[in-house]
Design brief:
Length: about 325
């Protein structure tokens, strides 16, 4: 094994969360300004250093790092190196449990670091297969969207079980991302929607299909550079996410503030029940105004993402 590192990005779901678990499409984007790095150096013991967990690999069982620890053990087995000593240092700018794909980003960077350390080429399909295993252990029933986006370098159109398709974003438009400061657990939120589906299959299926429809219209709006129409579809999706029970007071307050301050559309992003919301602004100037209003309304952190950063031409 040689010293090596792997990298991944935060992800933001523009539209389609939760419905994507049931086969509907979603659109998500990697936020390259918010990164996670996993660095491996050789050592005599097997040590993890991170803000999520610090200690030996074998003592991680039963902690919130257990899913990633199992992934590391499986990687070591794959490289016939179960007794290899190492220090794995994880540096993350992603807030955990805020809908930014922290666990998927961590798994992605760890897999990349181990493949680089053992000098083995890693295909995208292999990477997604490794991260699917750890995301299943951590989240129960993931669509694969988080792992596909944290490892991507372009916005993605995603349908569960199919290879993600890169999509083009408009020339203009800025997303404001704001953190409620409240942790939201994907497993719990996905479980709540599953419970809704059991309790009220007709209404829940209608909400899931309506989110899928909004995602199709959002893709059309993106292709036509129509920010107004994109904002409308974000609002539609938020209405359905509320009906599914995954929004909460803190999210609703920030979403209302963004709309009062001129956002074209605003919704939760990720699994909800806390975590982050997004608001669409015409441009960076309007985004700054919305961002300031969100901070005043209690957002604990805000970020900005200009669509122009993602264009290939
Ligand atoms: C979580 O970031 C997104 C969800 O749709 C779950 C998933 O797709 O696995 C809520």
């Amino acid at each position: 094994m040689k010293n090596a590192s792997g990298e991944s990005f935060a992800k933001i779901i523009l539209i389609g969360e939760h419905a994507v678990v049931y086969g509907q499409p979603a659109i998500a984007l990697p936020v390259k300004s918010i990164r996670l790095t996993a660095s491996l150096t050789t050592n005599t013991e097997q040590i993890i250093q991170s803000s999520f967990y610090a200690g030996s690999l074998h003592a991680a069982a039963g902690t919130n790092f257990a899913g990633i620890a199992d992934l590391i053990s499986a990687l070591l087995k794959h490289f016939n190196a179960s007794n290899q000593g190492f220090t794995l240092t994880i540096d993350s700018a992603l807030p955990p449990e805020r809908g930014m794909g922290s666990s998927a980003a961590c798994a992605t960077a760890v897999v990349r670091a181990f493949y680089a350390a053992f000098d083995e080429p890693l295909s995208r399909a292999q990477l997604l297969s490794w991260t699917a295993t750890s995301e299943h252990a951590i989240h129960g029933n993931p669509s694969g969207l988080d792992a596909a986006t944290t490892s991507a370098d372009r916005p993605q159109w995603f349908v569960k079980g199919q290879p993600p398709i890169p999509i083009q974003f408009p020339k203009n438009g800025t997303l404001v991302i704001a953190d409620t400061g409240i942790a939201g657990q994907t497993k719990v939120a996905v479980g709540a929607v599953a419970q809704h589906l059991t309790d009220d299959p007709t209404a829940t299926t209608a909400s899931i299909e309506a989110i899928g429809q909004a995602t199709v219209f959002a893709a059309k709006a993106l292709a036509e550079d129509d920010l107004q129409a994109l904002g409308t579809q974000m609002d539609h999706a938020q209405g359905q996410l509320k009906a599914l029970g995954v929004s909460n007071d803190a999210l609703n307050r920030l979403i209302a503030t963004a709309k009062e301050n001129g956002a074209l559309g605003a919704k939760l992003t990720g699994s909800g029940q806390g975590g982050c919301m997004i608001a669409l602004a015409f441009d960076a100037t309007q985004a700054t105004q919305i961002r300031d209003a969100l901070t005043q309304a209690g957002a604990t952190a805000t970020w900005q993402y200009d669509f122009s950063d993602e264009r290939t031409n």
